[in-house]
Each structure stands twice: as structure tokens, then as C-alpha cells.
Structure prediction request, 258 residues.
Amino acid sequence: MLYYVLAAKAYSRNLQYRGAHMVHNIASAMFGYMYACIWIGIGENRSLGDYGVQGMISYIAFTQAALWITGFITGGLGIPQAVRTGHISLDLMRPVHLFTHLMSREWGQIAYQFVYKSIPIYALYVIVFSLQLPSDVYRLALTALGLVCSAYLSICINYLIGSTALWTTESNWLYWGNHAMVMLLAGFFIPVEWLPGWLQTISWLSPYPYLLYVPTRIYLGFEDGSLLIGSLIWCVCLTAVCLSVTILLRRKLEVQGG
Prediction:
């Protein structure tokens, strides 16, 4: 119940800014539209692999919408700000684990962005580009599972980034470095199979393909659910790392300010 309340509070807090967030939606939709137009131009003289022009448009539309729940989440889960203000000491004193506390709050944020950002943006692309929605319920269920795993992996990664604030006064470079890796290694700019061989290897040795590429491929019908095994393995591994880091974080508490 506690975790549900934390998530619900985060969701409700964001409802106060729905008007401002519509501006974000317009900007995001415009970016995706321009990106799709580039691939339409490229596809005039090229086959674009298994995708084709319409397939690439569908790929771009889905990744652009999914990015709001797998990439654009609270940087460091708010830990760097809590360290600067000294509020981190109160968070660690609460009778609830820091990781699950921040994770629950972030799930509320993700739920809000899914409803008010991902769905409207994708619905707009469906209308503008006449995209076909899959009718296979099993595929949609696998896609949903993939997105949930993706969001959880992103939460774990940002928790680890935020935890570094206990050892350094500036962790924004890690956040933006992670954002760059999402753009490149997660298959946002181009599908992972189009990357150079050595970069594909690096990508698949990391959790990044499971943030965007895997759910997108499943949604488009190019993959079955077998790749979700990798998503689940990474979820387990990063959970263990997050819990271990929390133990170290409790031992290394340096409040700056507050």
C-alpha cells in the first residue's frame, strides 16, 4: 500500500502540469516527424533492410513514443538534489528501503508520462502516417512486458547514476552520458543491426538494446518473446547491484549543505 501511495502521489503531482507538458509533446512529435521525413527521403533509393520505408516510420514512431517511459525519467531519481540539500539523510532514516522508495515514486512518474505523453504522441503518428496497429494480443502483451522491463532497467541505471552523488559533487555528466548511450546503443537513431559490428557487440553486452530496440522489434513483429529473457536477466542483475550499492551508500553519507 505504501508503494502504491508513493506512485499515486507522483502521478497526481504531474497532473498539475499537463498544460506545460503538452508543449513537450508537440516538440517531441515534431522531432519524430522530421526524423521520419529523413528516412522517407533515404528510402526512396534504398530498401532499408527488413523494414522498408513504412517499417522505418513505424520503428521511429514507436521508439519516439516509448522514449518517454524508458529514457526520459527523473535524472538520478532525484538523489543528487537530495544530497545537495541534505534531504538524503532523512530518506535513509525512513523505515523503507531507499531503492524501493525512489522506484515507487518513479513508477508514478512513468505511468503519467505513458498516459499523457507516449499515448498521445503515438496516436498522432498513427493518424499522420496511417500506421497499422497490431491485432495480435499475444504480441501486444509481450511488448507491454518488454516496456515494463525497459522502464525498470532505466530506473535501476538512474538509481546507480544518482548514487554516485555520494562520492562526487557532480554526476550530471553520467546522466547525459547515459542519455547518449540510449540514443546510440539502444537503437533510437538507427536499428542496432545497422551499427558497425564492433559497436553491435558492445551494445549487446550492455542493457541498452533492451530499453528500446527489443520492445520495438517485438511490437513490429520482427522478434518473438525470446529476447525478453535478456531483459529479465538484466533486471535481476541490476537489482542486485542497486541493493549492494545502497549498502555502500549508507556507509558513505556526506551531506553537502542542508
In short: The mean pLDDT is 85. Residues 2-251 form one domain.
